Amino acid sequence: MLNSHSSQKRHKVVVPRIHEKTYGESLGFRTSILPSLKDLGPADLIHVSRLHKSSHKETGTYHYITGLDLSTVGGPIAYLSTIHLSDNSSKKSSSNNSVGTYCSWNCFTKGDLRIRKEFPAGNYSTSFIFGDRKKNALHNSGVTDRLWRETYVSSLIRALLFPDDPARHMPGMCQYNPVLSSTSAKYAVSELIYFLPKGYLVGCSNDVQQPTYVQNYLVDSLLKLVEITGLYDLALEKIEELISEKPTLNDEFRLLLVKLHLLNNNEVAAVGVLHEGLQVDPRDALLLNEQAKFVLKKNRPDLALTSASRSVAAAPAEFECWETLVKVHLRRKDYQSALLALNSCPMYSMRQSDIFKPLSPHDVEFPQPLDGKFEQIWNDAESKGPVFNNDGVLGLASKAEINATEPLLIRVYHSTRYSGTFKKSYALLAYLTKQIGWDEVLRLRSELFVMEEEYHKELNFQEEEEENDLEPGDQASRSESQTEKQFLNGKLEVPSSDTIHKTRSRSISPHKRDIASEKFKSKRLCERWLDGLFLSLYDDLMVGLVWDSERKSGGANLTHSALEWELIGLSCFRSCNFEAGIAALKTTLSANFSIFSALALLQLYDFYETDPAEFRRLNLRVNIPSNLNQDYILELIVKTLAWSYRWYGDFSPFLAKLISRAIERDGSQLLKNKVQSKFHAEGIPMIMDRYVVWLEQFHTGDL
């Protein structure tokens, strides 16, 4: 972590060190995977090599980073210099000669920008290695301003998206704030918008079929940044300038304008842009979908149905449109249509992401940051280790803890680790079940669908039945008839017994299918993936049912471990049993801090605060204010901040959004006083103050 609060710490930076087994292997591995990188690429890599005079041996250490300012070469050079000056091992070594290398992936041109700095000589060089092996690397002056600009924006996107995505985390990754001032925030917004026409090159999430002008990681990061900083006017102005320069982009970016207006609570402007866009193209699926969501939020599902249906008709392969249609049916209490629409949702397979298994290191050093200590949280964090590669709850548990855990909970956890469109579809099915109950869901399923296994069993049964009904003479005459047909068609070879059997089977099929068709003609075939979701939801409901019965019995025999409580709570959340889930997760957190439990509670509270009316409609009688009051949420924010800071996480857009909302509600001074009074014995109030001071500049109205 960068520290500059005193003259003694001015040149001090505490970073993780991963020691290579073989010198240069981290750089070599990164170079080897460049051709396979498809979207955002990995976090920036910092490699430091040293030559030891006595042994004439070179050794290498490395770590990862997001959020460093790459708008000029000055940022990486300053960071490498700070690492060199604060490295105690180089001071104690018989040689102070070292080389630092900074690597950053360019999502647009698909290549790695590298800055190499020598110490103590001070010389540096730059190069650009293309992912396409057929292209020659560029050096120094060959690395153009355009490549620098693209790499800056690529790094900025990663800095905004990686901190809140555990799947993108790497062991030994520092996460810094990419926009420390209002000036740098304005520059970042301007640069992101400048590259909007190229946004489709950086890839998109697995919820989207394929990247487009308005469905990509660049747009996702822009919306996050603007929501935190409140730079709506600047963003709208820059987009209008972009459209005026390239009028052909007007239709492409209307949806983005609508989203920005809605985030800024300017509904009149948003509706105006929607109306204008649909006048130009009445079949714009994404605009129709946005219109449906807006009307639905205004509690008019009857009006939303028209827009949602037209959206699906215009883009039947777009999951987001189907998702909205399902929600509209749920709000209209048309549960049959909701289930049928859910069965029709297009499922996207998981695309290959730029996530790779980390190298096996020789040794690792994860020194504690110099400030911000929260002893209890840091002790819990160090007992479990950092999160990386989306290992999840069990990834932080010891083998002994896992072996002592109820096998049902382990099995259910593994079977329900959905992502992308499957995760969203599971949530929709859970909402439906929450509203009408599991028995009614099963009745609807039986009434509407034939399961694939049931269908095949019926076909096999009909085939066996007809075969048993055939007399030997019938079988012979049928075979002769087929042989005669073959002869008439010019096929003179004598058919084998296998051919006769296959032909006889085929001759039964039309009649057999007619019988099966008559039985199932009023039903649809249930998609296999939806059948799997039903089974998974049943398991989650069983976990919640057992926990509910334990609670209602008075809790005399509740002897679950902290891990079991966490798995129970997360299972209840997946099945929308939030009241039981909150109780279980709060029990987990009372035993020791878990980042997954804390984030689950914070995300639930964020949903509630963002749209309380929608939350109540979907989740019925859950009383969030009494179960998760503001003081408890603030405590969770501080503890999550402390956990992240221990693992070099100096920036989280999600936490920044929650803190910003608290500032709007309570004011910055009251917020700081609350944290100071409750955690005065810890070092974390200093880190919280930094967040508040940083966010205050975006709340002054001087932007």
UniProtKB/TrEMBL annotation:
Compositionally biased spans, kind Acidic residues: 461-472
Source organism superkingdom: Eukaryota
Name of the protein this chain belongs to: Member of the ChAPs family of proteins (Chs5p-Arf1p-binding proteins: Bch1p, Bch2p, Bud7p, Chs6p)
PANTHER family, sorted: BUD SITE SELECTION PROTEIN 7-RELATED (PTHR31975), CHITIN BIOSYNTHESIS PROTEIN CHS6-RELATED (PTHR31975:SF2)
Assigned GO CC terms: exomer complex
Biased composition (Polar residues): 476-486
InterPro entries, sorted: ChAPs (IPR015374), TPR-like_helical_dom_sf (IPR011990)
Region (Disordered): 460-488
GO biological process, one term: Golgi to plasma membrane transport
Organism from which the protein derives: Komagataella phaffii (strain GS115 / ATCC 20864)
